[in-house]
Design brief:
This protein has 117 residues and is α/β, with parallel strands linked by helices. The protein contains 2 helices and 8 strands, in the order βαββββαβββ. Helix 1 packs antiparallel against helix 2.
Length: 117
Amino acid sequence: MSETIKINYIELPVTDLTMSKEFYANAFGWSYVDYGPTYSAFNGAGVDGGLDGASDRKPGKNGALVVLYAKVIELAQKDVEAAGGEITIPIFSFPGGRRFHFTDPSGNELAVWSESK
């Protein structure tokens, strides 16, 4: 292949667009551009993406895992919990860092990682 293929855009199916926007804004400071009543593109996540409230795809824990980065993982976990996320795997160590998994209000599972202290 002659060109590098990079992740360009991530869409998360959601069951409640308003609740999902609030969750990601409160947990991570994301902002949005609305494209109709069922779709919002998010900004400030490090990669372009959107929340899709009308997708045939359903939120779930068994698809691709989106992993976010945080400098202070404990603070990120507190922010996720305060915003209404459910911690599914508490902070654990792995070679090179630490991470935790959570589900958003729609049931999508994501993870947050940080470098080792």
